[in-house]
Amino acid sequence: MESEAPELTPPEAEAPALTAAEKKRLKKKRQKERKKQRALEEAQNPEGNPTPAPTEAAPPAEGEKKKRKKKKGGARAGPTSQTNPPSVPVSQFFPNNSYPTGHITEYVGPNATRISQSDCIQRDSINEANLASLRQAAEVHRELRRFARGFVRPGLTMTEIAEAIELAGRRMLACEPPSHIASGIAFPTGLSVNNIAAHWTPNGGDRTVLQSSDVLKIDIGTHVNGMVIDAAFTMSWDDKYDPLLQASREATLAAIREAGIDARLRELGNITEEVITSYEIELDGKTIQLQPVRNLNGHSLGPYTIHAGKSVPNGRNMCSESLRMEEGEMYAIETFASTGRGNVNEDLECSHYRLEADTGYAALRSPKARQLLHFIRSNYDTLAFCRRWLDDAGQDKHLLALKSLVDSGLVCPHPPLVDVRGSYISQHEHTLILRPTCKEVLSRGDDD
Fold first, then answer.
1. Is 299 a catalytic residue?
2. Helix/strand/coil for 169
3. Rounded Cα gap, residues 399 and 405, in angstroms
4. Distance (Å, rounded) from C-alpha 77 to C-alpha 92?
5. Is the peptide bond before 313 cis (omega within 30 degrees of 0)?
């Protein structure tokens, strides 16, 4: 049933509410409008033929807002640039999943013709969906690195840094925490300082503050549909550490140049050690030859898997001569340069954990442990997580339940890896894929 339209209130009904000055202004305005209308009519009808008088609309009642006319045209255009801090999903900038391609290098030697071989091209096209996911995760990673380089500074707490990076990553991937299954942060943001090489992120309540004398390694993981991008870089605020940062960067880029289908993993380790040991640094009046961290490795990547089986050594003669890279494999090529022994051990409080693949529920007596295991499976699958994330998701007082899962072999802890006290370590890392036709360094950007 249609409602009856309300009767318009004539202007005279509102007159008592108007002051004398307002009445005068309103009268002048109407006279001006009528004069304009007559001039327009005379211009359109020079012969003086009568035209219907215009209908004068009643002015809006007091306190009533004047309706704005809608502009014609299509929908409002989307954002044209990323915010700072990043908050816009990258999918809004790249319609139809047309994300930027990584750094492409054609194969050389016996594999040089792969770029034009029809069978290689066909195998390459089959993997388009995974490549789109990888490139989306890589674009987010580049934005996160750009943000971190501008945001991270001495005086911030490690918790502030980690939470800012992870929040920006989740927003750009349209991830709704606590779940990281469809897309999100692939592992807790690594913020390892000085002699800590890897696997350190603040636990809940940590108040560590970044110092201007620190050498900070920022290790970030992103993923879309389980396709992981793993890349890292090092920051310092003292020029004396420049050779240390340069050593790991150049070693990683040299290993990437050597990587390819049929490349020997042993040779990548030889190149890494050769580059890093060619650097020296002067600290406290002493000249120190840098060393690769020989018991840390790069690694192959798989769906929802950070370490998929193969390792890329960081030192000379560290693996069998027969181990080679193969078509279709993905690798995180990462190198570490140290002023210490070049050997790390597990130390400090653990923050990183990971659900073991293909495990059952075991004989868990504790209801809290069973509930926590279900939560981990539902939200992280086999991707790494940290205690801070459990706190944020409302899984408070989880320490005993988590210990029960570790003791049962269902969850694997990854404690911080540390060189000798007083030493400094740098890290540099990128993710690449050995496509049938070419090598694509997915994570590389304008910061290299």
1. yes
2. helix
3. 10
4. 10
5. no
Q: What is the mean pLDDT of residues 108-120?
A: 95
* Residue for token pair 């840390």: 296
CA distances from 271 to 248, 264, 313 (A): 12, 11, 10
Query: Which entry of 219, 250, 329, 381 is annotated as an active-site residue?
Result: 219
List of residues 6+ apart from 328 with CB closer than 8 A: 127, 433, 434, 435, 436
Q: Which two tokens stand for residue 227?
A: 């396709």
Dihedral Cα 378, 383, 388, 391, nearest 10 deg = 10
pLDDT in tens, 233-283: 999 999 999 999 999 999 999 999 999 999 999 999 999 999 999 999 999
**CA 134 → CA 91, 140, 357, distances in Å?**
13, 10, 22
pLDDT in tens, 359-404: 766 678 899 999 999 999 999 999 999 999 999 999 989 999 999 9
Q: Which of 139, 329, 381, 429 is catalytic?
A: 429
Both tokens of 349, joined, read 């409080």
Give Dmax (Cα) for the chain: 103
**Active-site residue, from 267, 307, 327, 392:** 307
Contact (Cβ atoms closer than 8 angstroms) between residue 145 and residue 219: no
- Indicate if 2 belongs to the active site: no
The span from the CA of 249 to the CA of 256, in Å, is: 11
Residue 346: strand, helix, or coil: strand
Does residue 106 have an active-site annotation? Answer: no
| pTM metric for this prediction | 0.82
- Any catalytic annotation for residue 124? no
Residue 238 annotated in active site: no
| Set 141, 223, 299, 428: catalytic member | 299
Q: In 5-141, at which residue ranges do the beta strands (DSSP E only) sit?
A: 103-106
Neighbours of 300 (CB within 10 A): 19
Sign of CA dihedral 11, 16, 20, 21: negative
Q: Which residue has the tokens 């211009």?
A: 43
List 139, 166, 273, 334, catalytic entry: 334
Q: What CA–CA distance (Å, rounded) separates 333 from 231?
A: 8
Q: Residue 294 has what DSSP assignment?
A: T
Identify whether 352 is a catalytic site residue.
no
